[in-house]
Design goal:
There is one protein chain. This protein is mainly alpha-helical and 101 residues long. It has two domains: 1-52, no CATH class; 63-100, no CATH class. The chain contains five helices and no strands.
């Protein structure tokens, strides 16, 4: 029982140590206190109001589904067909045979 408690204590201390290292490495320019103050101020203000985050009507438009598929033409298909898989396996086998010799 004592060994389990010591193990849990050591694990907790290791986790706290890792968190402290990450906090020191990722420290903001003004320090953590300034970062928390600015975050709370922004949270309490209307800076992040939902109305401000909605795009303007001029920026959005309805697009038919067919147009979405033609936005970016691709030179290659989006999937690999069975023929291409067979040719790749054959090429890999040939290279393996050459390397074995």
């Amino acid at each position: 029982m004592t060994g389990a408690m010591i193990g849990m204590l050591m694990t907790a201390l290791a986790a706290v140590g890792v968190l402290l290292l990450v906090a020191v490495e990722r420290r903001p320019e003004g320090g953590w206190a300034a970062w928390v103050r600015e975050s709370v101020r922004a949270w309490r203000s209307d800076e992040l109001a939902a109305a401000n985050l909605r795009p303007a009507r001029a920026e959005t438009r309805d697009t038919p589904l067919e147009d979405l598929f033609t936005l970016a033409e691709t030179d290659e298909p989006a999937y690999t067909g069975p023929e291409e898989l067979v040719s790749r396996f054959e090429l890999a086998r040939e290279q393996a045979r050459l390397l074995r010799r």
